Amino acid sequence: MSKPSFVLHGDIAYSKPDRSLTSQKDGYLVVVNGLIKGVYPSLPKEYAGLPLHDHAGRLIVPGLSDLHVHAPQYGFRGNGMDLKLLEWLNTYTFPEEAKYQDLSYADKAYQIFADDLRKTFTTRACIFATLHKKATLALAKKLSSTGLIAYLGLVEMDRNSPDYLRFPSAEKALEDTETYLKEIKDIPNIYPILTPRFTPSCTDELMEGLGEMKKKYHLPVQSHLDENPSEVAWVKELAPWSSSYADAYDKFGMLEDSIMAHCVYLNEEEKALLLSRGTYVAHCPDSNINLTSGIAPIKEYLEKGMHVGLGSDVAGGTHLNLFYQASLAIQMSKARVLYLGDKAPLNAEEAFYLATLGGGSFFGKVGSFLEGYEADILVLDDLKAYPSIKDLSILDRVERFLYFGEESALKEKIVAGNPIGLK
């Protein structure tokens, strides 16, 4: 079945794999069968017959990818920000996630989340649900109806969590996960991802079974890694057979084709391991400062060639807005320069890359306007929303939008070539 073909006219900006920003003022972005054909200073004759969306004076940028968000936590974002991670989990997160056993509660809460996510700058996301299979499948259907594309995980936990929020055994966790894999496959645009919450909540038996499932079904993985010093110390006690927290995942084959959120405290062995496995780091600056976790050395990770994108990490983070998260990534990296001796902070081009191509590449050819990439597109009426007396370059406008861009300036949103209704 063919996908839409069309042309967008406006001021176009996108990242290249070297993290540099390229732009074309009054340019033409051509989409053929849902894929980017190219960006041109004038419209080639062979595309003159395609439908033209004229957005003269507006910014046209790739859609943003959220590599780490907890859907069941959306209802209490902004609460408990005076607590550190483990205390916050026990006080707020676990009691809230337990409520998703009630399908009526889950239906109402997940509808709010799905509706709000649709209206954001996010076109793709990697999402944690809970261990409740029926509620998670209900979320999958709601997400599918938005037109967004997402990986959605049933959260596996079988130790070190309340009795009301863990599987009674590794065997039961694996059984429910396998059933979930079969039932989600017919839901359009929503794909399964194995989701062991983190090493402390998963027995070795469960991790071994998930590793085998990963190989059997060729599945990606999402989890947490090196977020908080007390968590890192806890893993040393729980997995004395591993050389590091990352190694505790790698022993079960869980680092390849995976996203590890946070990665604030990676040691040199772990950095090399994640680089060799091609693991994606989901940088969550909002959450890391809210829960007093620390400041990840993202500039260093990029310079090493590691894969890095952004995560909102709601509700540790308080905003789904990934432009906001990008500006926080810059500010947090400046704090590392001031207090931890880093030589240079992230710049606006690098932060924009994290939000677009950096995270989008986890989904394949996503997050840029290079030829052959899937057409995830945002149209931003930035100059009307934020007038300026200055003659701003496209890079100036992108940088401004990182710092105060709001969804009210979003005029069109396209996912894989398909328009998404915003109202």
The tally of strands reads 17
Mean pLDDT score: 97
Structural category: alpha/beta
Helicity range: 25-40%
Can you walk through the features of this model?
By secondary structure, the chain is of the alpha/beta class. It is 38% helix and 22% strand. It has helices at residues 85-98, 103-118, 133-146, 170-184, 204-217, 229-238, 245-250, 268-277, 285-290, 298-304, 322-340, 348-360, 382-385, 394-404, and strands at residues 6-15, 21-32, 35-40, 52-62, 64-70, 122-128, 149-153, 155-156, 190-192, 195-196, 221-225, 258-262, 280-283, 307-310, 377-380, 410-415, 418-419. The chain is globular. The model has no long low-confidence stretch (mean pLDDT 97).
Q: What key phrases describe this protein's structure?
A:
single chain, 423 residues, alpha/beta, 7-stranded mixed sheet, 4-stranded parallel sheet, 14 helices
Concise structural overview:
With 423 residues, the protein is α/β, with parallel strands linked by helices. The protein has helices spanning 85-98, 103-118, 133-146, 170-184, 204-217, 229-238, 245-250, 268-277, 285-290, 298-304, 322-340, 348-360, 382-385, 394-404, and strands spanning 6-15, 21-32, 35-40, 52-62, 64-70, 122-128, 149-153, 155-156, 190-192, 195-196, 221-225, 258-262, 280-283, 307-310, 377-380, 410-415, 418-419.
